[in-house]
Design a protein that fits this description.
- The complex is a heterodimer of chains A (387) and B (590).
- Chain A has one domain.
- Helices cover 72% and strands 2% of the residues of chain A.
- Chain B has 590 residues and is of the alpha+beta class.
- Chain B has a domain of 355 residues: Beta-lactamase (3-Layer(aba) Sandwich), CATH 3.40.710.10.
- Chain B contains 17 helices and 23 strands.
- In chain B, the strands form 7 sheets. In chain B, strands 2, 3, 4, 5, 8, 18 and 19 form a 7-stranded mixed sheet that branches. A 5-stranded antiparallel sheet of chain B has the order 10-9-23-22-21, sandwiched between helices.
- In chain B, a hairpin with a 5-residue loop joins strand 21 and strand 22.
- Chains A and B meet through helix 6, helix 9, helix 10 and helix 11 of A and helix 1 and helix 2 of B.
Chain lengths: 387, 590
């Protein structure tokens, strides 16, 4: 009797907690989806505003870039719907084939990709340009998470920790840096770092690796005065106002012109050829000009929500693999936003990477939306943190 | 044990994940702060710099004022034309283009080719062509050829009013005549347009614009009568043909107001053909060029006998003589220095002869004037003495600018060197004095206007863009009494009725005037046989309304006198002037 009562209570309690759990999980998933939709809508508007002048000039169609971005949104939506429904554990089985495909694509781009602006980043596919380095960000996260999960019992041994890390990040990051695309390499490194942090590797290894990576990067960056100038150029753009500093100065002009409330949608001045890459790398400056501090803070706030939601997803992930993937994807998307906005605001070097969900660029958008779908899937499988 | 360890590990990684999340959120908050700095704290300074880089100021050219004659006929106006220019970089086949366009533009294709092959990125092919021509050129669809609108000055009356209007340069700046002297009123005030432009210079539609419109220039309402101006030009042209003179100049003055009714000359020029105008050109060397000249205002000559009006009027005014005063034994030759007429430098040094030989006779003042006796006039001047004679010459306006509203007026001069003992005598008969035709006309107008000298002028009023009319004031001064003036009018009438000016007769009107024939100085400083023949006169003598001064420069020997060369031109112009002004005839019928 008592036992049965107890068991009924247990069942009830379990049911209640499962309901609660699902509610929380759904709330997190919904938050992720909503912020994704909002960022994408803002991005579409900003893309149109920032690109229409250039679009008329280059393609005689003011919606040229908008239309292409819209196609990206369409494909990205399908990708998001698919990835949010695929149980994330499936990626463990796809990790190694996915890694090989990514490496093949990165090699292909170095062999076949046209040289545009001094670098090889795109593979022309059916009238669109496909950017394998975007795919590489997800691949690194999944492969690294898979390997660290596979070896999680051996991670206390340095060799078992460092070999998979150096192998995945080294191969993919190395291929990306050959393009050359330093910005994306940094993002890949940051995403890998987040995966490692979320793994069960001993802290001392993590710190050691961090010191090694930062040290190597430091040596690489500051070994050459030319590179030093490029990297520190953002500190005083007026020193070379018509050269290296030009883009940042124009970014400042755009943002300051926006002020508190902005000059109004479609009224940006910077887009009239003053601000290079207005619809790609510097779209945040256009948002700041047209929608003011209010608009800029809204966008930054949305990334704060992304960081918090991604953190929650990682914390509540039912297994190590899920946690590592969630942490890696969140870190990738958020860190890339920080590096992009930091460049636009002159507090970081300009690295030429896109603002996730917002900047014009189909590959980046599709990959970001697919990643968001993976996060949503992990969120829905979440368990409450043990007390 | 193992279970606890396993449970502890995820917690450890959870803390690390939280650290990542916290780090990212803090970084984002930092960016928010930086955004606040740029968009609020530093906004004013940065936005100001950004605006400065976009702002562009363009001058808005004001419409230049029009010039009208007294009846509202247009003498000068500004219209929109098209200027054709090229970017030689973009022109693919310069030779072909030069040949195609040269014909349409009326520019030598070799010259065009030179411009099309220059290494500049902007060359004019031709400025200010008619819009139709520009369309035709654009219709060829040649790459690198462009047009832009530009105002151009046109002179509907062509050469007829050219000596009045003067002209502007290709950029619309007044260069000569009214265009020069009224340049400031005519040109108006340039406006300004400030707007935001994009990096390629196009206006940003959403950008700010600040337009201060240009204020069009004022219109000039002149005293010129265009039909009379035309008749005057025609009279001059036929005079050149008849007398083979170098040039002919005529000015018609409204006696009462000093307004210039016509001011013309020949040879003529077209004010729109700037390229044929060259201040330094010598038509003798290059017959296709025209130096812009206006002898009426800028040329000085020795007025000769026409000057006698002032000498006699002065003596009458001073009470030294009356018209009936008789000078006894007036010869046709006068030596102011012993044996002056036998020396080589005859006239310069005190030998004076009448134009025609005549018997020594007693002559009245009236007779001396009518027959234009040099000797008699000098005797009359002798009653005044040099100082009083000079003061009257100056009062009548010689030796100083009349103040006419025209560019670069010559003041003329009284050539009285210190110690010159005979200059007064020369001045009495119109030598040793340099005057402009306009000064002589104004002096005669003073007599016609009952002794009141009025400054000649061309512009009666200006009308600004709002229709406000500003009337030019009249500058007048009393020169001689009305009595003296009326006496002089009678003497002038006598000259035409029975004296040297009979060719000046106008049917139906009583006319008065004076001939002048002055020998020109040669390059060696001696007088030559070549003359300047002039006639200055007025009508109708019952109440003079119009003064006409005619100067014929270097007529052939047959027409060397004022009576022969200038008086017929005077008659022709005076007749037209009287008709144009609707003056009633005052001569007895028959």
């Amino acid at each position: 009797m008592t036992a049965s009562v107890t068991s009924i209570a247990k069942v009830r309690a379990a049911a209640r907690s499962r309901a609660e759990r699902l509610k929380t999980n759904n709330r997190t998933a919904t938050a992720l989806l909503v912020l994704g939709v909002v960022l994408i809508v803002i991005g579409l508007g900003a893309t149109q505003s920032a690109s229409s002048v250039v679009a008329i000039d280059q393609a005689e169609d003011r919606f040229y870039f908008f239309k292409r971005q819209l196609i990206g949104v369409g494909i990205g939506t399908i990708a998001l719907l698919v990835t949010s429904r695929i149980p994330y554990r499936v990626y463990r089985r796809l990790a190694l084939p996915g890694f090989l495909v990514t490496v093949a694509l990165l090699v292909a781009v170095l062999v076949l990709g046209p040289v545009i602006g001094g670098s090889q980043r795109w593979l022309p596919v059916a009238g669109f340009s496909f950017q394998p380095s975007e795919l590489a960000k997800v691949a690194v996260v999944i492969v690294l998470a898979h390997l660290l999960e596979k070896k999680h019992r051996l991670l206390t041994r340095f060799g078992h920790f460092v070999v998979p890390v150096v192998f995945t990040v080294g191969v993919i990051g190395g291929l990306v840096i050959l393009q050359p695309d330093l910005g994306t390499t940094i993002i890949i490194g940051a995403a890998a770092m987040a995966v490692i942090m979320a793994s069960e590797s001993p802290l001392r290894y993590v710190l050691l690796l961090t010191i090694l990576v930062v040290g190597a990067a430091w040596l690489l960056a500051f070994s050459d005065q030319y590179r030093v100038d490029r990297i520190t150029g953002f500190l005083n753009p007026w020193e070379n106002a018509s050269g290296e500093g030009y883009q940042l100065i124009q970014s400042y002009y755009a943002l300051s012109n926006g002020g508190l409330f902005g000059v109004g949608l479609g009224a940006s001045r910077a887009r009239w050829f003053y601000l290079p890459n207005a619809h790609t790398d510097f779209i945040f400056a256009i948002i700041g000009e047209e929608a003011g501090l209010i608009g800029g803070l809204t966008v930054i706030g949305l990334y704060v929500v992304l960081a918090l939601a991604g953190w929650a997803v990682a914390a509540r992930a039912p297994d190590r693999f899920g946690r590592m993937v969630a942490a890696g994807l969140t870190a990738w998307l958020t860190f890339q936003a920080i590096v992009n906005i930091g460049g636009v605001l002159g507090v970081m070097p300009i690295t030429g990477i896109a603002l996730p969900f917002v900047s014009f660029g189909s590959t980046a958008l599709i990959v970001a939306m697919a990643s968001l779908g993976i996060l949503v899937n992990i969120a829905q499988a979440g368990v409450p943190p043990k007390t | 044990m193992a279970a606890t360890k396993a449970a502890a590990k995820p917690d450890r990684s959870r803390v690390r994940v939280a650290a990542i999340g916290l780090g990212l959120v803090l970084a984002l908050l930092g960016l928010g702060f930086r955004l606040f700095q740029v968009q609020v704290v530093q906004a004013e300074e940065l936005a100001g710099q950004g605006l400065d880089q976009r702002l562009v100021t363009r001058d808005l050219a004001p419409q230049r004022g029009k010039i009208y004659d007294r009846n509202g006929e247009l003498l000068a106006m500004t219209v929109e034309a098209q200027s054709i220019w090229a970017n030689p970089d973009q022109v693919e086949e310069p030779l072909w283009v030069a040949q195609q366009i040269g014909g349409l533009l009326g520019v030598d294709s070799q010259e065009l080719l030179t411009r099309l092959e220059s290494d500049r990125d902007f060359v004019y092919l031709k400025r200010q062509v008619e819009p139709g021509v520009a369309e035709e050129i654009l219709g060829l669809g040649v790459r690198g050829i462009y047009t832009h609108p530009e105002a151009t000055r046109i002179y509907p009356a062509g050469s007829v009013a050219a000596h009045v209007t003067g002209f502007v340069d290709i950029d619309g700046n007044g260069q000569e005549g009214l265009e020069y002297i009224y340049d400031e009123s005519l040109r108006g005030v340039p406006g300004k347009a400030v707007f935001e432009r994009d990096l390629e210079g196009r206006i940003i539609p959403q950008g700010m614009t600040d337009i201060m419109p240009a204020v069009p220039g004022a219109d000039l309402n002149t005293t010129i009568d265009l039909p009379l101006q035309y008749q005057t030009q025609q009279a001059c042209l036929s005079a050149l043909e008849r007398t083979s003179a170098e040039s002919c100049w005529v000015v018609v003055l409204d006696v009462e107001t000093g307004g210039i009714l016509a001011m013309s000359g020949a040879p003529v020029f077209d004010p729109q053909m700037r390229q044929t105008l060259d201040a330094n050109c010598d038509p003798a060397e290059d017959p296709t060029c025209h130096a812009f000249k206006n002898f009426i205002v800028r040329g000085v000559y020795e007025p000769g006998s026409t000057q006698k009006l002032i000498t006699v009027a002065a003596a009458l005014e001073e009470g030294e003589v009356k018209t009936g005063t008789v000078f006894s034994q007036v010869a046709d030759i006068l030596e102011l220095r012993p044996d002056a007429c036998r020396s080589a430098d005859d006239e310069l040094f005190g030998c004076y002869q009448d134009f025609e030989e005549h018997e020594t006779a007693n002559m009245t003042v009236a007779e001396i004037f009518t027959r234009s006796s040099n000797v008699g006039t000098i005797l009359i001047a002798d009653t005044l003495g040099q100082d009083r004679l000079v003061s009257y010459i100056e009062r009548f306006g010689l030796g100083s600018q009349t103040g006419v509203d025209y560019s670069v007026e010559a003041p003329g001069m009284l050539n009285f060197e210190a110690g010159c003992e005979t200059c007064w005598a020369s001045a009495a008969i119109g030598y040793s004095v340099a005057a402009t035709p306009l000064q002589m006309a104004a002096a005669y107008a003073a007599i016609g206007n009952d002794g009141v000298w009025t400054a000649p002028h061309i512009v009666a009023s200006t009308t600004d863009v709002d229709g406000n009319e500003e009337v030019a004031g009249l500058e007048t001064r009393k020169v001689v009494s009305e009595e003296t003036a009326v006496l002089m009018q009678q003497l002038l009438a006598n000259v035409v009725d029975e004296g040297t000016g009979q060719a000046a007769t106008v049917e139906g009107y009583r006319v008065g005037g004076k001939t002048g024939t002055a020998n020109k100085l040669g390059e060696d400083g001696r007088y030559t046989e070549v003359t300047r023949a002039s006639f200055v006169g007025m009508a109708p003598m019952s109440d003079p309304k119009v003064v006409v001064a005619v100067l014929i420069d270097a007529p052939s020997y047959r027409y060397r006198t004022g009576g022969a060369a200038a008086a017929p031109v005077f008659a022709q112009v005076m007749e037209q002037a009287l008709h144009r002004l609707g003056v009633s005839p005052d001569a007895p019928v028959g």
